[in-house]
Structures are given as C-alpha cells and as structure tokens.
Amino acid sequence: MAPRSDAASADSASRTLVLGIDGTRRIVQCGPNARAVLGYEPADLIGRSAGELAGEEAKAELETLLEALAAGQERRAVLAVRRAGGEGIADADGSTTDAVVTAQPMVGGDEGSAPIGLLYVRVALPPSERYQDPALMRRALLDDPLTRFGASLDLDQSAKGLVDVIVPHFCTTASVLVLESLFAADEVHSESGAAVLRRVAVTSDDRNPMWTATFPVGEVLVYPEGTPYRKVLETARPVHLPQVTAELAADIGRRWRRAPAAQLITDVSMVLLPLIARDTLLGFIACTRVPGFRRFDAYDVEIGMEFAARAAIVIDNARLFSRERATALALQRSLLPHRLSAPSSVEVRHRYLPGSQLVEVGGDWYESIALPGARVALIVGDVAGHGVRAAVTMGRLRTALHTLANLELPPADALHIMHELMIELGEQEPHFATCVYGIYDATSGSLEVASAGHLPPLLVAPDGSNEYLEVPPAPPLGVSGSATIESREFQVEDGSVFVIYTDGLVENRGRDIDDGLARLRGVFGPDTVGRPMEDLAKATLAGVYGDHHRDDIAVLLARLRRLPDDRWASWSLPSDPAAVRRARGLVRTQLGEWDLDELTYTTELLASELITNAYRYAPGGPIELRLLLERTLVCEVLDRSAALPRLRRAADDDESGRGLLVVSQLAHRWGTRRTAAGKVVWCEQTIPGIDPDPPEPQAIWPGQNHHRV
Predict the structure, then answer these.
(1) What CA–CA distance (Å, rounded) separates 423 from 416?
(2) Which of 398, 397, 520 lies closest to 455, judged by CA?
(3) How far is the C-alpha of 398 from the C-alpha of 384, rounded, in Å?
(4) For residue range 584-609, what is the model confidence (pLDDT) as tens digits?
(5) DSSP 501-522
(6) What's the CA gap between 181 and 255, in Å, rounded?
(7) Which of 338, 540, 602, 676 is deepest in the core (most CB within 10 A)?
C-alpha cells in the first residue's frame, strides 16, 4: 500500500512534512522533520485530529481537503497552519505560517489504523536556510527546467523562462541582458565593454515592484566604466561580489546616474554570469541575494556558470532562429507584389499577415494584374512548407504566373504550365503548392476561375448572400495525378465581392476548418455592398492576431463592378473590304463623343490595320470591333481564327506584312489572346493628361509599407 510519489517533491526553497491520516481523520504517521517544518515533535502529532493543524481562519478549508481525501480525491490548497509555541500542539501560541497542503488518497486504504491518505505540508524555508544544499540547487537548475524553456525559439520567452528558473532556486532577484545586435538579425561579433545591451527579463522572489521599476524590461543601455556590469562585459568572466557595501552601491548609482539602484543593491550579494556561446559573449545574467539570505560563495558561482553555459545555448538558438526568420521574411516581402493593378471599375484590397513568432515564414502570395480589355487576373497561392526555401519557391511561382497572366493565357492553361514547372522543380527538391486563379471581365461581368488544390473562393452577392464557388477539383501543383485542371465560368452580379485566401485564415490548431469557413462567410452580410473595402479587409483578419501558432495568411478581396456602358462600345462588321471604311467612321464618331478628337487619326489607322489583318487571314466570319475607355484607350478586333499573328519585318519588295509593324510603332503596346471562338488582337494608346498606371495607393493599414520594397 504505497502512495503516488509525485506530490512530495522538494526543492531548494521549501521543506515538506508528510502525515498519514486514517479514516477518523487522525494523524497515524508522521515524517521525521515535523520540528523543522512546524516546530513539533512527531510524538506530539501522532493521535491528534488533523483538523487541529489549521488556524481558526483556515479550518473550513482544511475540512474540505479532508472530505476530499475520504472520498478518494486529490486536492491542494494554501492554508495557514499552526506552529508550536509550548510543549505540544495543544499549547500552540496562535502563530501560523502559510503552507501548501496537498491531500492525496492511498490506493487500498481502509478505516482501520492504516492511513487512507497522506497530507503533504510544504512551507517555505526561512531565509537563513535557503540555498544551503548545493545538490538541490544543481538539480533545480540543471535538470528539467532548461529542457522546458529551451523548447521555445523566441528570445523573449526564453529569457523569461530562464529567470523563472533561476529565481527562487539560485537567487532572489535576477535579470537577463543581451546584446542589442541580437535583435537586429545580424551576425554577432566580439563586443567591447561599451556594448549596447537590452534587458529582456527581470523577476524577483519578493515581488518588490522597485526592481522592475528601476530595471525595466526592454531598456536599452550602456553600462558606465568602473561598475561590475562593465567588468563582466570586458572580461567575459563571472564577477562575484559577496557583499555590495553601501559605498560601492552609492558609487555604482552615481556612475550610472540611477539613485534608486544604489538603494536596491546595498548590502546584497551579487554574481554576474556571462552568457557565452560558440566563444561569443551574448550578454549576462545579473543575480542577487538580498540581505538575510546566505551570500554567494565560490561554489555558487561554479553552479551558476554551469547554468549560464547551458542558458547561453538556448539564447543563441533563439537568436539564430530569429535571424533565419528575419531573413526569410525579408526575402518573402521582396518577392511579394510591389503594387496591385485592376480596371478602374474594380476595387481590390489585400492583406498579408506573416506567421506568428512561433511559426516560420511561409510561402503565401497574392496577385492582382490588370489585363487589356477591362479584365483583371486575381490570384492567391500557397507553397507547402516554411522558411527560406518556401519563400524562394513562392518567388519563382509568382514570377512565372505573372508572366503567364501577361501572356493572357486562360486560368486553367496557366495553372497547367505552373504544374509542369513544379514537377520540374520537384526533381531537385520535393515541392508542391496550391493556387486559385480567376479572371474577371468588366465588360461582360463574367468570372472564369480555376483551382489547383486550393480552398474554394467566396463570392458575396450585392444583397449579402454568399456562397463558396464550386470549381472543378484538381490536385495541387507539383503533385502527380490523373486529374486535369479545368476552369468554370460564372456570371457575376454587378457589385459582388470576390474573396480568395490561404488556409491560415480559416484553419488553426484549435479550430476545425469548417468552423473557419463558416466564420469567414459570417463576415460578409447584407451590409457588404455599402461597407468600405478597408473595413471588409480588416474584418477578415479579426481575431487571428492573438494566435501564437498562426500560419501566414494571404487574402485578396475584389469588388467586381462592370465598366459603365458609356465607357465602351462594340460593333459587328462583315468580313469584306468595306468593313475598313465603316470602322473608320465608327471610331471617329465614338472618339468625338469621348472628347478624344486628338486621337482620332491614329486610332482610325490602327483599327484599319487590325481589321484588314482579320479580313485577310480569318475570312468567312464576322469581325467585332471594340473600343474601351479606361486609363488608356484600347482598340480590340475579334475574329473567328485561332491563329495568332506575329510581328515580322517585311523585305523592301514585299507587298504585305507591315501592318503589325505599323501597329507596334503607333500604339503604346499591343498583344493577342485566344478566345473560345477565335482570337482577339488589341492595341492600347495613352490618353493625354492621364497616367496609364494608377497612382501608388497611400498606406492605409498598419504594416502595409513593410510589404513594399
């Protein structure tokens, strides 16, 4: 019949008395250190009621513990227990001491003379007896605690865990100071005594607020010459001051110009432990024992240096992780889009949130690319994995996809090429990514979407109703499979909001992805049509900042509005030579309505060349001419031939082949794209007084400028 052994652990700051309690709540067994804990002899306690241990104000709490013990339940409470003041417990003088009392039942106990449970009474050691046993100090400092706080790769959390271990097991007050260069993600070099330090953690056993007020966390400072703090930095060796005299404390306070410091460190015992990792000084730990406690000796310094050597490894690991994370984050930010573009009728907002400090940088990205013909490509992707490699792969994919978008490939075709690229990259190192790609046409209101293993896009109608779009499924990019990437076309109501995102927005360790998808739908209600896009973008990230295990998040929102009817015009022309003359007249009339008479001659010539090419190389079908007035003037000619024209330089005796050369010389830019029924050849002209590129938007959300180069 043995008790469980996890409740009687002792440490260097406490002493524990074990009492056996029978079914009548009487003490039937008593540990040998009853006098050291409560001042009683063991014989004074045997046979007494356990209820007599507590002072009057704590009897009810002790009765609760004893009832739980009789019921086979384990309980713990902080109680005021009585101390001996006469010949025995009956003669106690009324003095009490706070103790942590744990009631622990025993398996197989009965109501006979054998105990049914144990009471563990733990009291703090008096100041004169603390830090007496080196073995206890060494065990408390060097066994499990370093493993616990060493698991964190965050510098601040590691330092906080460090001081919580060293106080109270080694000293009464401690602070950790590290080189300021550790926070700059730079390589740490050998520093002189005048190194700039930052205090990252402070704690005290007595919770005296003067310590944290005089030595605040986060302070950046340089210690003055002639102080022990400067000496530990100059020598990289421990500094041991068995007693700081009033004169020395006053001198330190005067040199430091910090009078309260002199008051706090007067008559304390102090040891400064350097933090050295890979032969480099990272900082030091300042440890003090206030008056009344045993002063530091040489053996204490040896134990402290052993702890500091291990703690320095933890600090260095956190520094290296912070440096790698900062490098990956800087790389990722440089690879993300510098700016977003869209037709004037489409309003786009984005949010990018890096992963928390406990998660490495990921490979999420977003893209909004204005395309000719009042169209826009809207893209969000996520590279699997974290760190620099994920960021580099993200940069490759984003650059390739940006190029494919400017080539005006349909979403499914572009993602298929990206899939082949990922397969090729995977031959060197396994990679895969998910991506959703949509193209919105502001003249027709159509939205074509393709997805490769990505979460479904959300489409919010102007009345607030919303749904996740059902896009044909396909495996992620780079994952071998028989499924092909297909796109689906949706007809979108004017003013709808299109939302694409990465999984970090809707999924985390404590929430199912279905709950996250439902939360995202709840963000967009009947008031969506009237809410500013900034408010909607802010609402999508509400509640995610406090998640310490948050993955990085990319969100792209677009309010899809059609180009006004008076900003574009379309005509169907027959496939014959007379179509050229008619096109000139239509262009002249339309530009007159738009007050663009200065562009009439050039536009007529461009339209003539494009229609002539369509008539000669795509006979047998109608030709469509379109003019669009955006930030530029776009002229488009649609025909039924899938063959794309190419620019060539005609010989002197050639009678044809100069049309596209004329177009390339007169237009700001030109291009082609295939359609389901044929192709489109377009050219673009700048409008006098209007910048063809939209102005750089002003920073309107915290951290937006950090995502620009």
Answers:
(1) 11
(2) 520
(3) 14
(4) 999 999 999 999 999 999 999 999 98
(5) E-GGGT-BTTB-HHHHHHHHHH
(6) 24
(7) 540
Q: 270 with 287: CB under 8 angstroms?
A: yes
How far is it, in rounded angstroms, from Cα 314 to Cα 467? 48
Check: CB of residue 473 under 8 Å from CB of residue 451.
Answer: yes
How far is 46 from 67, CA to CA, in rounded Å?
20
Pairing between β-strand 375-383 and β-strand 458-460 as defined by DSSP bridges? unpaired
Cβ pair 22, 116 in contact under 8 A: yes
Residue 417 burial by CB count (10 A; 0-12/13-18/19+): exposed, middle or buried? middle
Confidence check: pLDDT of 467 > 90 = yes
Beta strands in 426-472 (DSSP E): 433-441, 446-452, 458-460, 466-468
Q: How many Å from the N-terminal Cα to the C-terminal Cα in the chain?
A: 71
Residues in the chain: 709
User: Residue 238 contacts by C-beta under 8 Å, 6 or more apart in sequence?
Assistant: 232, 271, 272, 273, 274, 301, 304, 305, 308
Q: Is the pLDDT of residue 388 over 50?
A: yes
Q: What is the pLDDT of residue 152?
A: 64
Q: How far apart are CA 646 and CA 288, in angstroms?
A: 81
Regarding beta strands 446-452 and 363-371, do their DSSP bridges make them parallel or antiparallel, or are they unpaired? unpaired
Query: Which of 278 and 4 is assigned the larger pLDDT?
Result: 278
Question: Which tens digits make up the pLDDT trace of 675-700?
Answer: 888 889 999 999 988 877 765 554 45
- Could you tell me whether strands 117-124 and 14-21 are parallel, antiparallel, or unpaired per DSSP bridges? antiparallel
As a whole number of angstroms, the distance between CA 639 and CA 27 comes to 101
One-letter identity of residue 539? A
At 495 the pLDDT is: 92
Which residue(s) pair with 175 in the sheet?
A: 202, 286
Say if residue 245 is exposed, middle or buried (CB neighbours under 10 Å; 0-12, 13-18, 19+). exposed
Q: Which residue has the tokens 């490759």?
A: 396
Which residues, 6 or more positions from 488, have their beta carbon under 8 angstroms from its beta carbon?
448, 449, 450, 469, 470, 471, 472
Residue 598, classed as helix, strand or coil, is helix
- Both structure tokens of 485: 């990437």
List, in order, residues 6 or more apart from 413 with CB less than 8 Å away: none
Identify which of 621, 594, 602 has the alpha carbon closest to the alpha carbon of residue 662.
Answer: 602
Tokens of 688: 């006098």
Q: Where are the alpha helices (DSSP H) in 524-680?
A: 533-540, 578-593, 600-617, 659-666
**What is the signed CA dihedral for 481, 482, 485, 489, rounded to 10 degrees?**
-130
What is the spatial distance between Cα 488 and Cα 473, in angstroms, rounded to a whole number?
11
Residue of 418, 402, 421 lying closest to 452 (CA atoms): 418
Considering just the CA atoms, what is the radius of gyration of the chain in Å?
38
Query: Helices (H) and strands (E) in the chain — how many of each?
Result: 18, 26
Instruction: Specify the DSSP element, H or E, that contains 263.
Output: helix 259-265
Edge-to-edge order in the sheet of strand 75-82: 27-30, 14-21, 117-124, 96-105, 75-82
Q: Which residues pair with 376 in a beta bridge?
A: 370, 440
50, 119 Cβ separation under 8 angstroms: yes
Please state, in angstroms and rounded to a whole number, the distance separating the CA atoms of residues 516 and 523.
11
Sign of CA dihedral 454, 455, 461, 462: negative
Q: Which residues pair with 221 in a beta bridge?
A: 197
Residue 654 neighbours by CB under 8 Å, 6+ apart: none
Return the closest-CA partner of residue 114 out of 1, 4, 31. Answer: 1
